[in-house]
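Quick one: structure for this chain?
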Amino acid sequence: MAGSSTQIPASVTDDIRRLIADAGIDADQDLIARILATGVGLGLDDTDRLDLKITSAALTEMRAAFALFAPFRGIPKATIFGSARTRPDDELYRAAAAAAHALADQGWMVVTGAGPGIMQAAAEGAGPEHSIGVSIRLPFEEKPNAVIAKNSRNVAMKYFFTRKLMLVKESQAFICVPGGFGTLDEMFELLTLQQTGKAEPTPIVLLDRPGGTFWAGLERFVDEQLVASGVISPDDFGRVLVTDSVDAAVAEITGFYRNFDSLRWVKDRLVLRLHAEPTPAELDDLNARFGDLLVDGRIEATAPLRAEERDDDRLDLPRVVLTLNQFKVGSLHRLIRALNALPSAAGEPATPPVPASGF
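Got it. Here's what it folds into:
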């Protein structure tokens, strides 16, 4: 039957478990077993050789990328997208370098596609010690730029989809500088992931040259065509900051974590961990403004939930809990911005936590 999968014999499953134990793997044995069983299943399904090569290469590339990022798991990261064709004498090049430098000064690492143009500008601005590259193997872009190559913090990918996974998964903020098809592809994927709730809310900045109209033109198209025709919601583009100011771009990123720390789903309840507990009056105001996002109940301050206690998950932080309408997950960024703007949250921007996965 087309599309069917051959059942893996129980004896093979037992062999997989023994293999894992013999290899000395103690943690996450269930997930390792699932990965190995999937590989065996592909063989039993008589999978086409090209499909097997794609699967093998993707897993190999992801393993290399996970290993590259692992030593920097506790450091916040911002990915900067932009054209490989932008020249060093371009104002956009200087803007990308300045933004990366400012973020590095505040303890952030900068992730790029490791190529020339805006990618090199960002790496230069951040410096070798604050840069990580995820390059793509292309006939005309075979080597990482000199800054990334200097510290050997680069992994080369064959496939764009694995490269984009790592550029998005590992970062807590994003800056997009005007570019071509690749830059627009990356920017729209970011918006899609956040609109659909497949990625946690993060700051997204569209940074232009002083007086530039590249992103303003996109914003106009979104309003006049996409919103007007009803294919996106009116506030879907509201999660994005369009600016020609490096200072505003950096402030948008650091300010996003002024009060908001992280989120976690516990069954159907959403927990937002904060740096400052809202007052009762502030909670009343939040419920009045954002009650339409809820299935029922209220936005309430709470102690850590039992699941959070079991995992020792950010227990020192205050939090609020709500039952979010899943169809409105794309509007969650509005609530986070409101939490960041509360008078009780006054203080310096906080450093965001770095989760094991942004997905």
